[in-house]
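G.,

No rush on this.
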Amino acid sequence: MSLSRRALLSAAALAAPAPAFAAWPFGLGRRAAPPPTEGRANYAGPPLRQQFGDWQFEIAKAAASTRLQPVIRDSYEARLHEAIGKMPGVRAITAAVAEPDGSVWTQAWRADPGPLPTRFHWASVGKAYTATAIMQMVEAGQLALTDTLERWAPAMPNAPWITLEDLLAHTSGLYSFQADETLRATPGYKTPEQLLAVAASHPPLFPPGANWSYSNTNYVLLGQIIEAVDGKPWHTALADRIAARRDLDDTVFIPPQGRVDGLAQPAPSDVAPGTADDISTPYAAGAVAASALDLVRFWRDLLADRLSGPEATRRRFYRLYPMSGVGPGHYGLGVMVSDLSAADPSAEDVWLGHSGGLPGAKAVVAYSMQTRAFVAVALTGEGSPEATANLLLMDLRR
């Protein structure tokens, strides 16, 4: 059912109890949360990206609406192995490409002998799934993008002025727990409550709305909100709302300290802070494992409006913030826009997608506006999934 923009922004919120966030448990002398600032501030960062036209979404939807037909493509096989040859640090890799006519190719490779992995860790690409569940709730009138964090997490800094849209877009100003050196040096699984306690102990980077800064804290909070609204664990809620609904059988939202069958284990090149973390710690900020084919299918479902209505999809790309300090690109609501010309002036392509990474694993999924194809690449070890994806699409540009 179509949803008006006013309804998207102002739907009445469903009453739900605020989760009680536990204290940081390791006795590390965390300081008390700093006092909040007074109110919001107008955005004062670099200029936003130019908006897309409705016709561009219609083209993407048409490309995502064709019936998928598995094919063998020697050219993709050759391009994948060309990429592997340029990345000696890669231990395993998977890729999938869906062409505009529905032809879909996929392959996996590993350096060591043994069975090929069937699932890879997609890290922060998982934020797109979390944002999809939130937008479904907004569309259903269970939440509004203008709802403030005070209702669910009043102890977080600036909770009365941080909106759901701020969390989705990374304009909350909340400190990202992953930047805490003590946390990164602590091995093993950490609960969402522990992650939020660390984030709350640091002062905000800026008043809500004033700027953009990538923060995993935002998406852990969104996971807690999903649990409060749906009344079930985050991983179960997303499995019901997305994987089961679209028959994504090779997609796993990793439960606390869960294990995933057929997973290519992250392979960091050296021991560094964060490398001994549990793969389920990222929670709603990126604890997702899947095949490359399932990622392509999910991204097609997203842009074909099969997971939410067209206005919800467009709303995710409505305000696109420069990803300052992260790299070239812009961020919407759980989506990234990459202008390839930022890295290569001769390039003309624009990707609608999301990238992710953790020690020893990196991934990307995207829709290419130039080729109208969908591509997903994930790898373990050291390498560039974006460069691999670009190489795979090269022949389609000719």
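When you get to it, here's the other one too:
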Amino acid sequence: MCDTLVALASETPRGKLLFGKNSDRERNEAQVLEMHPRRTGGGDLKLTYIAIPDVAQTHTVLISRPCWMWGAEMGANEHGVVIGNEALHARVPAQRRRALTGMDLVRLGLERGATAADALAVIIGLLERHGQGGDCGHLGRFYYHNGFIIADRHEAYVLETVGRDWVVETVAGRRSLSNAYSIGAGWSDISPGLAARGTGRFDVAASLIDEARDAVSFGRGRCARGQALMDGAGDQLTPAAMMAILRDHGEAADWSPANTVGRTICMHAAQGARRSQSVASMVSEVGADRAVHWVTATSAPCTSLFKPVLFEAGVPPVGPAPSDTCDDQSLWWRHERLHRALLADHAGSMALIAAERDELEAAFRARIDGADDLKRAVADCWREAVQAEARWAQALQPARPGGSAYARSWARLNAVAGLAR
């Protein structure tokens, strides 16, 4: 389960496009942050499950990908194109036979599209040629169709797919997308196969959505919540406001990670069907002068710091690429120890760290805005973030083991990951 948000430059006080995404996946499914330089040569390109012909030259890309996949949940390229992916559930079953995954399509769109329109055309062309399918779950099987927000500093699109068919909506202002079909009768383009399912300008989402699956994923509810929070920000829709939306836990007064009715934008895993948590988050601000990508590179944005990445400066050292087994040398797993300790008393933990978290992020944003030496400024932000998390970990009281179903679900997955209590 995931949430993706976009606001055109005309909608933001800084006059720059804003993009945000939480990637929600299984709790031990670490996410890798990496930058890949341009690739030349062509030949065969091995993706998550299949190989396809490569292109003669690709663009430099920044991606956040599940540790076992080739493709990415979200990312950006050197030209300021940003893309995020969402699982969609239709009445038509998703293909189980291995093909392109939605994550493959995100990365391919970034590698091959110099504009949002180019990336949109790349994804549609590859989808029609190769299809989508295969198991996209980690420990649990998970098959789905895919939706995307694709944007650059000039424009943005929502693309929703079912099999090899697709529908596109051109974004007019601000737009959210979650795990539910959302393009109604206002589509701007549609595949012939999907157009044949209705008459005239029909409501595509209503014709496709699996109501039973949506009741479980709460996709339409989260989409509406994200849209309401963006709209409610008015003329103050800044990177900080977008980060706050990605940290949203809804309005329930008694909310806690163990006591959640439905799924929230900042997703926390629990027992039963709620296997997913927000394992990585990203907010991008894309302007004519500069694109700054604020990433957590860690899970649970409420417990994480958004840190800057710019193509001019590269990605600071984050340790070895994490796998689904605990490795304290990797940034993702070091934070995961902190995150899982914070869950023992989430409200108390947030009271301890939230003010410093927000102050640090404000200082990071001011530093990047005023930096002459971007590489040094980025490195300083990441170093201070690591130091802050180390302080938080030291200040925490050891978590008490619990006997609830919620606690047992965490104990089981901690053991699977080799993560000691």
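The chain has a mean pLDDT of 95. The chain has eleven helices and 16 strands.

Enjoy the weekend,
O.
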